[in-house]
Amino acid sequence: MLVATNSVRLLVDAGLNLKETQSRMDQVGVGDRRIDGILITHEHHDHVSGVGVVARGMGATVWCTDGTRAVISDRLKGVEKVRGIGHATPFTVGDLVVEPIAKPHDAAEPVGFLLHHEGETLGVFTDLGSVDAVVGEAISRCTTLVMESNYDPRMLADGPYPAHLKGRIGSEYGHLANADAANALARYANLSLRTLVLAHLSEQNNSAEHVRRAFTQATGPKRTGLERWVSFQDRPTRLFGRVATAGA
Fold this sequence. Notes:
This protein is about 30% helix and about 25% strand. It has one domain: 4-Layer Sandwich (Metallo-beta-lactamase, Chain A). The chain is built from 9 helices and 13 strands. The relative contact order is 0.14. The strands form 2 sheets. Strands 6-7-8-9-10-11-12 form a 7-stranded mixed sheet. It is of the alpha/beta class. The longest helix has 12 residues. Helix 8 packs parallel to helix 9.
């Protein structure tokens, strides 16, 4: 995901190669293909497969927890600029304040992020098996939120995945079911939330219609002043908000 202000551009995770990353930036109208940094949430393949080549190709600094860094060394060549981050310890990149938030997921040291800029707060919370009090409190501060809505339980149960993978996905350290994501939003989101982007939909175990139905049931008709969008894997999402965000 691309996050941009007038002075800095960051990627949250880098699961695409350099060519595809640049192509999707072009598709959303981002001009010179510059990236200043990459914030890594965790080490799973779809989040880090391009981190080394993108960092080297764009001269971008990589920020990640020590636990994540220890297990992505095979993605790096040692020439990249890599900096460590800690849970709930904010740091500044250009005119963005980045706040890492610990989250429940089956990875070495996973985090979500809050990104603060001129009174706006963007939250990025995908790849989490449950919404605990720490993540819930972070969601309550968001004006824009990118949130996981990964699977429909019936589609997962009836689908082709082996039993061990179904168990992993459905665990409290796996991924969020649509209804669980919707109920967490209904519980924690503040009226300051103006844009919601539902992301990380499983291609095998979910659909946009299942997501829409779950969120309508949990949160009611569309709230005045709240935009709700679904993001897809095969194409970039439009730019949102004053702190520009786009799904890569």
